[in-house]
Amino acid sequence: MNNLNKEKAKKKIAALREKIREAEYRYFVLDDPQISDAEFDKLMQDLIKLENQFPELITADSPTQRVGGEVLDEFEKVEHSTEMLSLDNSFNAEELRDFEQRIAKNTAQKDYQFVVEHKIDGLSAVIRYQDGSFQLGATRGNGEVGENITENMKTIRSLPLKIKDKAELELRGEIYLSKSEFERINQQRLENDEKAFANPRNAAAGSMRQLDSKIAASRRLSILIYDLISHSEKEFATHLEVFFYLKEQGFNVNWHKKAAGIEEVIEICQEWEEKRESLDFEIDGLVVKINDLALREELGSTARSPRWAIAYKFPAQQKTSRVKDIEISLGRTGALTPTAVLEAVELAGSTVSRATLHNEDEIKRKDIRIGDTVLVQKAGDVIPEVVKVIKEKRDGSEKEFEMPEHCPVCGSKVKRPEGEAVTRCTNISCPAQRKEKILHFVSRDAMNIEGVGPALIDQLLEHQLIDDYADLYFLKQHHLKDLERMGEKSSQNVTEAIRASKDREFFRVIYALGIRHVGLGAARTLSNNYSSIEQLRAASSQELEEIDEIGPVIADSIINFFAEKQNRDLISRLKQAGINLSREESEEKEEFLAGLKFVFTGSLNDFTRSEVKDLVEKAGGRSVSAVSSKTDYLVIGDNPGSKYQKAQELGIEILTESEFKQLLENKEEK
Ligand SMILES: NC(=O)c1ccc[n+]([C@@H]2O[C@H](COP(=O)([O-])OP(=O)(O)OC[C@H]3O[C@@H](n4cnc5c(N)ncnc54)[C@H](O)[C@@H]3O)[C@@H](O)[C@H]2O)c1
Ligand SMILES: [Zn+2]
């Protein structure tokens, strides 16, 4: 890079600027990005580096010198009282330390503090109040002029229309969609044959730019406030004081934490990298700000961003890749599932080379072709998926995908029942299905039988030593000994592992049966409601549906499962083998939360969402998503959302995180 000559740099800079401008237009104006945020950030970083090397090539219209964004003509324009800037980015601890160094160089002050906040992935808004009423809401636009979205903002429930303070205020906050609401909207759009939004940010931005505010209202957006730009009467000394005041006025304020030095900031950033999934909204990083407002003044800002703040960005969750092929795999229910084979990319800390395409309709809807460049996304532990195709990258060589007519494993005809999205192999004894069912049965969350893996199952099926999972319990050591790669010792271990699995908890057995749609959570719920397999089998679909979390689809599937003679036979052989088919005394004793319903809101400090769900369910309780009159407890973390208000209205018992912990601890002693 160092000996790059100026002519070359000039060309490279021009090309980068061109790409960045195009991406900004698609992102800010069309709400339809074609590259991932991480890729955009990379382009920007490359440009910044080059411009730093050749400062004489910096022009006033370079994207590094201004805030991206455009103002749409459809909306009334609003001039901002204070320019709305971007934030500088940092991607690792080193860059955060550099940020601190720059501050140290620019001030004589020694002991300053930082405030770390969530960087919510939504769209920023300016909000004005006068005489205690919400007056005006505007988008950032190009930083100087934004769009008037007051009417749409009135539909945001978490924005108070009235406040106590009668002074003139100007605030900033982030409008966003919760993950659950985002899913709901996309589901609905798919049902209406509309294009799904790529991510919650685009959905939120798209909703705010609707001319018809009824549409915005139907989207249930939220807002978190993170700054006070001006107050006509009060002076504040620190950012924390501002937060305190905003909270007092009834605003939903952004999560924040004080940090004494940059090392503490780094710790908080790393902590949230792991915890981000526990939030019901997306954050793409954290924002680190100077707490002392006078020091902020002193540090000032560049044309593009303040010097007193920096964004810390998490590793990418979305990236582009290319579909090399589309393969079909068979599940235990015989479903033919298309999977995209991708050019490997690093995504959120792991290498991704496959993504699920769900089913034929999904491929059609997204128009995914072999050879396409696609945007791939990964959220938490879920399987990576293709967000969308970047059609501009097509050169005509892409091939459309056709669902095969025959099962790729057994060759039988496949069928796609009317009204269903899934194509299945029609052969009930298709070896692929049998194998998948057994694999599921022995898997970790189910019966957890170590040593019984795909290779062994293949051999057992091939030698007709077993036909289904119940047969595993009738295997003798001498059956196994002669198999490939088995021998005395391993066959003994395997038979021992099979025997040991006989007293797995009842809910694991229910899960292991492989009833369609019954995942681990539903299995747990069922085991909380029925104490034996006989009771479960006797349940009517109406009775099942009355259980929270068990919908008609699951209920039907359970009924169908027990209706099949083959399955009832499987169960009686499991019983004969001595498998635990009822909830034991010991399991019941732990159920001190039996029947109680919990709702969690806000961000918890010591648990992830799946941890608390697990804890509650282990104790026989249930964790549900919405507050209703049937809720027993609402547990609130930092920045609880609208659920908090609703629970208060309904008079539901509210626990803080530490009270919830106490509840668990006290009861466990009993
Ligand atoms: N994918 C694309 O094609 C594409 C194109 C352009 C921009 N982008 C994305 O947009 C970013 C640049 O856009 P930008 O200038 O709007 O954002 P930024 O990343 O520079 O950060 C500033 C914005 O952060 C938001 N924010 C959230 N929480 C905040 C908090 N607690 N305090 C202060 N601000 C907070 C505000 O909306 C603010 O306007 C890029 O980093 C990139 O990720 C992507
Ligand atoms: Zn088959």
TrEMBL record:
The catalytic residues are 119
| Catalytic activities | NAD(+) + (deoxyribonucleotide)n-3'-hydroxyl + 5'-phospho-(deoxyribonucleotide)m = (deoxyribonucleotide)n+m + AMP + beta-nicotinamide D-nucleotide
Q: Which cofactor does it need?
A: Mg(2+); Mn(2+)
Source species of the chain: Halanaerobium polyolivorans
Question: Which EC number applies?
Answer: 6.5.1.2
Its GO biological process annotations read: DNA repair; DNA replication
Q: Name one GO cellular component term.
A: cytosol
- Asked whether the keyword Cytoplasm is assigned, the reply is no
Q: Which gene encodes it?
A: ligA
A single GO molecular function, which one? DNA binding
Which Pfam families does the UniProt entry name for this protein?
BRCT (PF00533), DNA_ligase_aden (PF01653), DNA_ligase_ZBD (PF03119), HHH_2 (PF12826), HHH_5 (PF14520), OB_DNA_ligase (PF03120)
Give every BRCT domain span.
Answer: 588-670
Q: Which UniProt keywords apply?
A: DNA damage, DNA repair, DNA replication, Ligase, Magnesium, Manganese, Metal-binding, NAD, Zinc
Q: What is this protein called?
A: DNA ligase
Annotated residues for binding of NAD(+): 37-41, 86-87, 117, 140, 174, 289, 313
User: In which family does this protein belong, per the annotation?
Assistant: Belongs to the NAD-dependent DNA ligase family. LigA subfamily.
Instruction: Briefly state the protein's biological role.
Output: DNA ligase that catalyzes the formation of phosphodiester linkages between 5'-phosphoryl and 3'-hydroxyl groups in double-stranded DNA using NAD as a coenzyme and as the energy source for the reaction. It is essential for DNA replication and repair of damaged DNA.
Binding of Zn(2+) occurs at 407, 410, 430
The UniProt entry, under CDD domains, shows: BRCT_DNA_ligase_like, LIGANc
